[in-house]
Amino acid sequence: MKESRARSETRQIVRLLRFVWIGLFLLAMPFACAQTAGPNDSFEHGRRGNPTGWTLSGGVGEWEKEGHSGKRCISVTGDGKSSNYWSQPVKLAGAYRIEFWTKSSPDATGGNIVAGTNLCSVDFRHTTEWTRRSIVFKHSFTQRSLRLGQWQVKGKVYFD
After folding, report:
1. With contact defined as beta carbons under 8 Å apart, do 136 and 96 qualify?
2. Do the Cβ atoms of 154 and 61 come closer than 8 Å?
3. Checking CA distances to 150, which of 61, 62, 93, 119 falls within 20 to 30 Å?
4. pLDDT band at 34, cuts 50/70/90?
5. Would you put residue 51 in left (φ > 0), alpha (ψ -120 to 50) or beta?
């Protein structure tokens, strides 16, 4: 009798562990299957002075003829009092992991390098050398774009 009760309890524990593992697997799936930013995420393609798929919010921004990885990158220039960014639409729903490189001009001061969505961004400090950055986010229906830019920086910031 005791042996059959022990087997029953063992089966219940095994079922519970399976349930926990399946739950953890399902929770991790969005990040394990993270998508890339989208078309032209290396800024190599474009025309008329703009990288394909990217839009400048305003202010000064350039499609540069240099880059960390390839021949092109983008930049934004700030006056120290405002912000601007390049944006790209994000597909509805899904998890994203965005990896990119940034650097600031030697004279850049104040503010922050920013990367994220229209609802939430991550701030980074200035470096004059190309520095690898990464952000992870889960897209909701109210987020519509990925943004790479500057907030109250006086000087130029590059993204690749």
Report:
1. yes
2. no
3. 93
4. very low
5. beta
